[in-house]
Amino acid sequence: MSNKLTEEELDRFIKTRQNYFDLKDQIADITISEERIKQQKSKALYDIELAYDSLTAIHKEIQEKYGDGKVNLQTGEVNS
Prior knowledge:
The protein has one domain. It has one helix at residues 7-66, and strands at 70-71, 78-79. It has a two-stranded antiparallel sheet with strand order 1-2. It is built from 1 helix and 2 strands; from the N terminus they run αββ. The radius of gyration is 31 Å and the shape is rod-shaped. The protein is mainly alpha-helical. The model has no long low-confidence stretch (mean pLDDT 95).
């Protein structure tokens, strides 16, 4: 004896099953995006460390040459 779902039951089952798999796909996409963002953040943190090191080195060169003071970024003047 073979049991068979009604059309309504089959339709409901198919739609619910598809929704379930769509949600699983959505979670997978979100997880992949999160990992990419983590990698981008790690790279940005590394790059900012390099930029900070460069800025510190240039600042030290300026201090050694012109002494302590603030650099006017528009004119290049060093004001004590």
